[in-house]
Design a protein that fits this description.
It is globular and about 85 Å long. The chain has an eight-stranded mixed β-sheet, sandwiched between helices. The protein has a four-stranded antiparallel β-sheet with strand order 1-2-3-4, covered by helices on one side. A hairpin with a 2-residue loop joins strand 1 and strand 2. 54% of the residues lie in helices and 11% in strands. The chain is of the alpha/beta class. The protein contains 20 helices and twelve strands. It starts with a helix and ends in a 33-residue tail after the last strand. It has three domains: 196 residues, Growth Hormone, Chain: A; 204 residues, Growth Hormone, Chain: A; 245 residues, 3-Layer(aba) Sandwich (Rossmann fold), CATH 3.40.50.
Length: 690
Amino acid sequence: MHSGILILCNAFLLFLIQPILGKSLLPKWGGTAHVWTTCLLFFQTALLAGYLYAWKIDKKPSLSAQATLHAALWAVSATLIPALAFFPAILPELTAFPTLAILLELTLRIGLPFLLMASTSSLLSAWHFRTSHTQHPYAWYALANLTSLAACLLYPIAIEPSIDSSRQQNLWMLLYGLLALGMILHCLNIARGSQDILPRDPIASPANQQRNPWLCLSLSACSSIVLAATTNHASQAGMIVPGLWVLPLAIYLATWWLAFWHPIFQSWIAQTGLFYLGSLCGLSAVVLKLWLPWYGLVALCIAALACIALACHGLIYRLRPSSESMPGFYLQIAMGGALGSLFASVIAPWCMNDYYELHAGIALGALALAWFHSRDLYPKLFDDPMTRRFSWPLTILCPTLLLAAMTMLLVTPSLEACIDKERDFYGVVTVIENQKQGIRAMLHGRIRHGTEPLEGPLHPDQTTYYQSDSGAALAFGWCQSHFSQPLNVAVLGLGTGSLSLYARAQDSMRYYEISPAVCQMAEKHFRYLSSHRGLTEILVGDGRKLLERETLKPGTPAHHLIVVDAFSSDSLPIHLLTTQALELYKQRLAPEGILALNITNRNLDLAPILFATAKQAALKPLLVESKLSPFEPPTRQVRWLLLFPPDATLPAWPGARDQLAPSNRPSDSTASNRPVWTDQFASPLHAMRW
């Protein structure tokens, strides 16, 4: 019983720390969804290291020696746990290698504790089997996944909305200390009371005795790739937040529990039906992502993950070995998961110029299922009419049709010619040309982030968000009429560089852009930057970090206007919109300078939140709404929020207002009820359009 309680508590803390750490890393790396993909790589790799440690230590003949070593490592880890809060302040910045930097930080902060927690389920289950010879040693694994699921669901429902980030870490460290104490006492009790028990004869595995270990690796890698890919696609709807990240992770864990609990998922019909239903949902999400509402996209991604993972995990459980080989079996599962995460977070961004991970994961799973079931059904092919006429042909036909359909999707040309495409840590940047409309456009993810005419002079009304009646144009005009000296303008987010059209020859433009791919595309394919005859600088890095460094350099000129337009697809870098961020912008603004925020978003209504946040920062908000680009649907609007000093008189521009219309949601009926975003407490869920 003690082993079971420790396994369940350990699994709870193991998965509770994952969204806590992911949230703490978001502001450091521009709020991009790839932060979580990299975190998954660390977690899966650490899980593999934990299972490898459990497998190696289980080889020791002395159970007492195993328990003593494990207790000593838990004691060491308990003394190192303050690194969770200490190491972030002393780590060097590796801005050119974000994936490596995140992995290094996570290793130093939580490496040893995570490895020990990852090994606990396998190791304690093996010890329990050696001492009790239970006939159901895999039951603890299923229950541990159920407890992990509870942690993933509890975080967005009860923890994230009510506890700020620093207190979350402190609470987790306290709980870990209690778990470490329990583990140490349990291991010492085993070491004192155990004898070197020789295991009885191995229990015959119900699975195929000629199983191929590479099949388990492939199936585990498939579900891991699909987990990362579907989370990434869902995040493009604007939901870069641990509350959403843990939802696919919870579904992923639930599939392990269901597959290890109910025998129906070991059958051919369940695995085939679920896998191809999930593939249909996943490919539909890819094809329809521009037209689906955010909740439709998220639902399709979740359905795809649930179905594909259930099919893969059901077959993995069918291939389980005897209980004596349980640590090695867990090691195979963890190795497949780590390889899948390695592919999704490192290999795919390096060798693929778009989000093709989902296609690769589906293809891998389809081939693995077809390989196993075709061999498994072959002996029945000549004796069973149902197998001959139905099961075996579908086993061959379904993956063939699926691979053909995915190939068609990949090779079918778009209506708009793709001129160039680059992918980096921060997303996919594409340059397209539409000869019918006579424009060239930049896409970041799935959203158009700037246009220019293929021929003729450049004009603001041919841009996407910066037409002559937009908030950005009005902010430039106000500053140019208000200040007699040349303007110093800071722009967080480069895009195509089209804001340079509003700068005079004597004005200075300084762009802060976190994505090297965006910088390359803007300079290579667009004329806006070169159209400005004055000083133009492009600084690569997170805009908030770079502005913070400027505050430490005496004599750095203040900015008369700061423009924040740093969005990737529909996703939102919240750390640029918190109260602390607004205070930083105020420090960098000249007296009477203003701040312009582009809050145009299909899935998020940012105005109520930022009105409240701006007033908390002692700034006067003015919302300016205007028409979008003529190449976009007429129902869509450009929304800019201009923030003025508290003593400024707000201009009376057409389409501008300093008050919001009453909300239909009771929680937003008054400004005092609207949440204020801070570095410790903020979530896009507050602004979702339901």
